Amino acid sequence: MPELPEVESVRRGLEPLVVGRKIIDYEVFWRNSVERDLEKIKNREIKSIHRRGKYLGFKLSVGYLIIHLRMAGTIGVGTEEMKKYVTVKFNLDDGNEMRLIDYRKFGKVWFVDKFEDVVGHLGPEPLSKKFNVKILKKMISTKKGMMKPLLLNQRFIAGLGNIYVDESLFRAGIHPTEKANVVDSRRIEKLYNGIVNVLTESLEVGGTTFISFVGTDGKHGEYRKKLKVFNRKGEPCTICGTEIKKIFVCQRGTHFCPSCQKN
Ligand SMILES: [Zn+2]
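Structure tokens for the assembled complex are given below, as produced in the milestone run.
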């Protein structure tokens, strides 16, 4: 699933291609991908592209076009013959088409008056200056649930998904099922640094690509090669050599090192 670095990479890749362009028309190839009527986007200029958590908000001359890539979506721009798996396309005034390419077909597109109506419920943006270790400590101290589902909860913190939660917990030495309010201060500091570092490092290389994600910025999602636990079941831990284990926590496949991340 595209998480913060992948969605941000899409945003950065699209910016030079579509900002300043007018949306002339659109076509829906997979009906379920459009949640509400899109007629209002016609003949509107794309003023800027914003991201909050995993949501993309295209600021139009009036209102916002919202796209959520969900499981496996990405966005391409071009004039060449249409690729497979396009669920929605937007015709731009320079002859290009902006396309939601989504073989799993879970991606969603809709129109709203205000971006805030869509993203208002989200927790802090982990790479923003407003988010720091003090805030994270305060946020975690009141939570009694397990760490993995807590960090996946977009209302708690925005933009993290399965990959970056597993990687961040590994860097902090926190077991995925550990109760939040018992994690000591030193490891919350490591967690804060872990979250910021994995996201930043991943962004630098265009995110993580397995099969489904292709960046629009020409980067190829090379972060896959740097993952320390995610998708590395059975391989040795890069710190202690112990075999990386995969368990299920709240039905989510979860990777960790049983020696470095003790509960
Ligand atoms: Zn280890």
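Confidence is low (pLDDT under 50) at residues 211-215. Residues 237, 239-240, 242, 257, 259-260 surround zinc ion (CB under 6 Å). Further analysis is deferred to the final report.
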